[in-house]
Task: inverse folding
């Protein structure tokens, strides 16, 4: 009989009812979304029975699908609750129950916690959330618990380009090798099933061995008392040996190869580890079209704090190498046999990332929530760290990798709101800050340049310089060295641009005509199309506004001194009748 053994009993359907408090109200049974039960024994906590019962009730109230749908969540809270009760047990005057918990005790425990994202902050927020559910807390204690807990400074940053490229390169090499191995053996199995090989030939025997591996998870063999599962000799010969590489790895991913696939999914799409682990099998749309392109519908689920969930659907198209859907196609091919085997053991299972373990469940062992028999689905944080260490990296690639993809590469939220993306990921990331610096500098320069364009740039003088050359709006001090040169030399600017030129000189003889020009442009504004006026006259009007502020009372005086010659000159200027 195969080591995959007989089917274990199926998990009971999720029950939408309160969790069971057993053991005289001191044991909580948490049933997760899949119907599996985790047991938490509050009798093990080093506090009084009254305190244990109070904490057990608060804990049990949250062990419902609408609050805690995963055992990972309840275990997370349990660990921090153990830490809190250990602290209480070491006090000189132990706290008998929550109704006598004081604000001072809470503050002392809070001060004793290290303010880090991994330890103190999580301990405080988790335990506080539980305790606030007890209505017997005193007003002073409730106020102390309700005070804002400052989150620690974020120290996690995105990967440097070279480091991230090396991580994805290692993952791609690992998964590509696995995909090639599995698809080649799948092709041989398909040919055997179609009768392509003579019965009894080596090719036929290999096909028969692959068929057994696909159905049972192992090559044909027998159980030896001393050496465990042994492969029948004739199959061992055609397989090339008894090792996992020669046998079941022909059709199934290993645990580390599953991590490599997860790294690639993270690198291409910015999904976090929990989303990848719970990913359902993508479905190809029925109307893929005659061109053979496959369009996959990928349903994403990200669980939020407090029992909430975020759902998103993406369509990924495979229309060749390096396209969004190509990795999905390859992952489906690499996991097809493992998914089928897991579905046989646990009908209704629809997980995408499925792999074969080297440690099968023992007969009669409790059913695992992440697989059955020889097969597991998803990727744990511990496994991700093991992959990283094996590849020579310092830590799991998923958290920093996801930050790198969403902040540096995609530059858009991934299962987060825009506010969370900006405040939590972008603003604190050195690479994002470095990339933003030249953009901000360029924008600032553009603003300054624009401001200079529409700012009065001529020099104010009390008297005219006989050496200057008169123009319609100012005197030119250096015609041959204009900042607006013409192709033929000299100045190529219009008379209106003289007001922006540092070579221009404006003295009292110009004030009246410029004041009249300002008045005329204001009149034009009232009768012209707004867009056209903005394009033709807005900059000149802004410079005159600047000059008006500089002159102050002299401007009002100039308006009373406008001459007929001023009016004729400005009319010609506005009508385009003046030569440069």
Result:
């Amino acid at each position: 009989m195969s080591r995959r053994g007989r089917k274990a009993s199926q998990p009971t359907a999720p029950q939408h009812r309160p969790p069971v408090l057993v053991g005289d109200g001191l044991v909580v049974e948490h049933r997760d979304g899949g119907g599996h039960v985790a047991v938490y024994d509050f009798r093990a906590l080093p506090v009084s029975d009254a305190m244990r019962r109070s904490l057990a009730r608060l804990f049990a109230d949250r062990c419902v699908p609408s609050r805690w749908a995963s055992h990972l969540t309840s275990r997370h809270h349990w660990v921090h609750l153990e830490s809190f009760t250990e602290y209480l047990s070491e006090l000189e005057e132990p706290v008998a129950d929550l109704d006598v918990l004081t604000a001072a005790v809470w503050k002392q425990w809070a001060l004793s916690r290290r303010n880090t994202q991994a330890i103190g902050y999580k301990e405080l927020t988790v335990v506080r959330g539980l305790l606030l559910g007890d209505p017997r807390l005193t007003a002073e204690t409730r106020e102390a618990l309700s005070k804002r807990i400052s989150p620690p400074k974020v120290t996690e940053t995105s990967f440097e380009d070279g480091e991230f490229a090396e991580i994805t390169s290692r993952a791609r090499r690992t998964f590509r090798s696995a995909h090639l191995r599995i698809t080649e053996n799948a092709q041989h199995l398909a040919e055997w099933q179609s009768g392509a090989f003579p019965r009894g030939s080596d090719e036929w025997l290999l096909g028969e061995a692959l068929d057994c591996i696909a159905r049972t998870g192992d090559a044909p063999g027998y159980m030896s008392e001393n050496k465990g599962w042994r492969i029948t000799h004739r199959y061992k010969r055609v397989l090339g040996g008894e090792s996992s590489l020669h046998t079941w790895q022909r059709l199934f991913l290993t645990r580390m190869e599953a991590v490599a696939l997860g790294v690639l999914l993270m690198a291409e799409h910015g999904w976090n580890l929990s989303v990848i682990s719970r990913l359902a099998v993508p479905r190809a749309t029925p109307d893929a079209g005659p061109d053979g392109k496959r369009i996959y519908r990928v349903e994403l689920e990200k669980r939020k704090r407090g029992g909430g969930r975020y759902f998103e659907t993406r369509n990924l198209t495979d229309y060749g190498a390096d396209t969004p859907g190509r990795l999905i196609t390859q992952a489906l091919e690499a996991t097809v046999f493992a998914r089928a085997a897991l579905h046989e053991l646990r009908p209704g299972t629809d997980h995408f990332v499925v792999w074969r373990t080297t440690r099968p469940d023992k007969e009669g062992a409790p059913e695992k929530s992440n697989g059955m028999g020889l097969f597991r689905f998803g990727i744990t944080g511990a496994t991700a760290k093991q992959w990283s260490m094996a590849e020579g990296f310092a830590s799991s690639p998923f958290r920093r990798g996801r930050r790198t993809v969403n902040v540096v590469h995609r530059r858009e939220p991934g299962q987060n709101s825009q506010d969370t993306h900006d405040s939590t990921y972008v603003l604190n990331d050195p690479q994002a800050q470095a990339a933003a610096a030249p953009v901000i500098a360029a924008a600032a320069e553009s603003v300054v340049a624009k401001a200079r364009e529409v700012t009065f740039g001529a020099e104010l003088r009390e008297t005219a310089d006989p050496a200057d050359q008169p123009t319609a709006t100012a005197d030119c001090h250096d015609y041959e060295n204009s900042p607006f040169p013409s192709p033929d030399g000299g100045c190529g600017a219009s008379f209106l641009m003289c007001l922006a030129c540092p070579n221009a000189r404006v003295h009292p003889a110009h004030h009246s005509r410029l004041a009249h020009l300002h008045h005329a442009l204001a009149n034009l504004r009232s009768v012209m199309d707004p867009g056209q006026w903005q394009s033709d006259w807005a900059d000149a009007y802004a410079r005159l506004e600047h000059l008006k502020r500089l002159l102050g009372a002299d401007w009002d005086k100039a308006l009373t001194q406008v001459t007929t010659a001023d009016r004729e000159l400005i009319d010609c200027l506005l009508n385009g009748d003046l030569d440069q």
